[in-house]
Amino acid sequence: MSGASGAGQTLAEKVLARAGGLDRVVPGQIVEGQVDLAMMHEQGAQTVGPFHQMGAEKVWDPERVVIAIDHWVPASTEGAAVLHRILRKFAAEMQLPHFYDVGNHGICHQILAENGWVVPGDLAVGTDSHTNMLGAMGALAAGIGPTEMAAVLALGQLWLKVPPTIQVRVRGRLGPGVTAKDLVLRILGEIKTTGATYKAIEYAGPTIEGLSMPERFTICNMTTEMGAKAGMVAPDQTTFDYLAPIAKHAMHPLRPDADAAYERILEIDVDGMPPMVACPYSPDNVRPLPEVAREHVKVDQVFLGSCTNARIEDLREGARLMKGHRVAPGVRFIVSPASTKIYEQCLKEGIIETFTEAGAVFTNSSCSACFGGNMGILAPEEACASSSNRNFPGRMGAKLARIYLLSPAATVAAAIRGELADPREMM
Amino acid sequence: MTVRDVIEGRVWVLGDDVDTDGIIGGKYLTIIDPEELKKHVFEIALPEFAAGARPGDIVVAGENFGCGSSREHAPQALRAIGVGAIVADSFARIFYRNSINLGIPTIEAKGVRAIFEKGDPARIEMRAGRVANARSGASVAFPPLPHHLLELLEVGGLVEKVRRELDRRRSAGRAVP
Ligand code: SF4
Is residue A95 less than 8 Å (CB to CB) from chain B? Predict the structure, then answer.
């Protein structure tokens, strides 16, 4: 690990300079940034009150606002139904055309990604902490609260302190059965949950450059668990190819300067790295999966879903492993695609059939079991193998339930064995 | 709530890494009414708090307070309780922003957790940047909040600040979205 102290600008600095209409910015500086995209999910229902209290009458730019409900879809409680109704009414009154309602829904971050709502150079904000995922587009994408969102809807701006940047340089080849999720868990194990608080992380190096967009989404998604303001990947041909058919507005591809000043550079070599697992009760409690598997950790539930890992590539990989096996007796296996589009794709490819025949529950697209407020809730002392991103006490229900965070392949391996297992043994 | 220069109150103490699930559990996220929310605050992290806390009490915590989700329910519930301030060794960034935006004095003071026990009287000097335990005499310094954040607290939070900004634009004849 080393620091670099060049005179150039990091990717986060360039995007914030652009958002603030400035030539350059330095860490610590406060910038009034023009927002390119604002996203709300159910928490946006709490934006409506403050928006009216502010005396705002119109949204600054209805073409730059996306509403995507996802936590309780279709509404599973009366409270959720009310949140949805508040948002529908607000969208109608403010003439916000981009509302992803039931039937056209998905996890908000996936909706932004698969519809090209965030493009290189953007400053994007959303009422969800994992908005960081969209940093994979070469944008600065951050979570904010609903009151702050009200200010953004009213003014189209928000203040941001320019964060120092940590560069994570990754080299080496991910072996068979070792995925982007294992890589980000490994990084989390080093940076820890507080290691990047108020900071930006720039993922770079040959391994990152070789990753597909879905893999980059997984990595940037879990930047949130490091406490960071943003996790970003500089845009390249992979980004442009992904966005070309879907980009909703003009791209401003910015790249970090070769002599950018990083607060810290973390070098990671993935050659020979095994699959990883984050054990209870923190996403940074990371250990090599083969070592934990030797302790025969039994699971009661398995969840393949969430904004981290429920894209078509993840579900395809899971189905490939699942085929010809059955879910272990006594295990509940929940599979939830990240969007309706992905659901349809699963239907076409026979993926739903594969999981259902094996004894899994294939649900409609939503946050599903990820957050302990909708479905797939855990009882005290139960253990769950999950492809999601958080395992704090109470995250999926009971405070004493234990959650293990894994790659999609490793969740399927756990569903088959009934205990944590190295997916490479089943390939 | 308008920020005072000196804030005094009785202290509740929490540890490190109290995450938003520990402040308000996922099952309460469909609740909008803060009066209802406050009944469940710290249910996981400090169960006796909701019934025992009084307006003006001060929350003291360790590192990384409020990590996890972006839920504003967490500081909203604390505002509904009427907490006088939240002081921690460090905060997670979204919680910090949400809490300041709601007008709660939110102070990052390294070492603060170590100088308090439950029930101690605290005295916070906002502009001088000092938080003291009035029982033991121990104190720690903190960098005073930057000007624009103090201003935000002084007007009572972001809602009021934007309301004034929109008024100002209207009376200046500038385009208001
Ligand atoms: S899937 Fe989980 S982490 Fe992602 S937005 Fe939904 S609740 Fe949050």
Answer: no
CB nearest B159 (choices: A50, A60, A394): A50
Mean pLDDT of A99-108: 97
* Separation between Cα atoms, residue A415 and residue A167, nearest integer Å: 36
Contact A141, A36 (CB under 8 A): no
**Which CATH number is A11-268 given?**
3.30.499.10
B68-121 pLDDT, tens digit per residue, is 777 889 999 999 999 999 999 999 888 999 999 999 999 999 999 999 999 999
| Interface probe, candidates B1, B72, B89, chain A, greatest A C-beta count within 10 A | B72
For residue B165, what is the domain's CATH number? Answer: 3.20.19.10
Q: In this predicted structure, what is the pLDDT of residue B113?
A: 97
- For chain B, how many structural domains are there in total? 1
The CA B130 to ligand 1 mean position distance, Å, reads 38
Average confidence (pLDDT) over A51-61 = 97
CB contact under 8 A, A193 and B157: no
CA A20 and chain centroid, separation: 26
Sketch the domain layout of chain A as residue ranges: 11-268, 276-426
State whether the Cα torsion A350-A356-A359-A362 is positive or negative.
Answer: positive
ipTM over 0.95: no
Domain membership flag for residue B78:
yes
Contact A145/B97, CB-based, under 8 Å?
Answer: yes
Query: Which residue range forms the structural domain that includes residue B159?
Result: 6-171
Q: Report the distance separating Cα A330 and Cα A300, nearest Å.
A: 7
Mean pLDDT on A21-37: 94
C-alpha of residue B77 to centroid of ligand 1, in Å: 22
* Rounded Cα distance, A405 and A297, in Å: 13
What does the pLDDT average to over A116-124?
98
Has residue B177 been placed in a domain?
no
Can you tell me whether residue A209 is helix, strand or coil?
helix
The fold adopted by the segment(s) A276-426 is Aconitase; domain 3 (3.30.499)
Same fold, A11-268 and A276-426: yes
Which residue, A89, A100, A85, A45, is CA-closest to A366? A100
Within 8 A of A373 by CB-CB distance, chain B residues are 25-30
Distance from CA of A196 to the nearest CA of B (A): 10
Mutation test residue for ligand 1: of A221, A307, A391, A395, the one with most atoms within 8 Å of CB: A307
Distance A220 CA to ligand 1 centre (A): 14
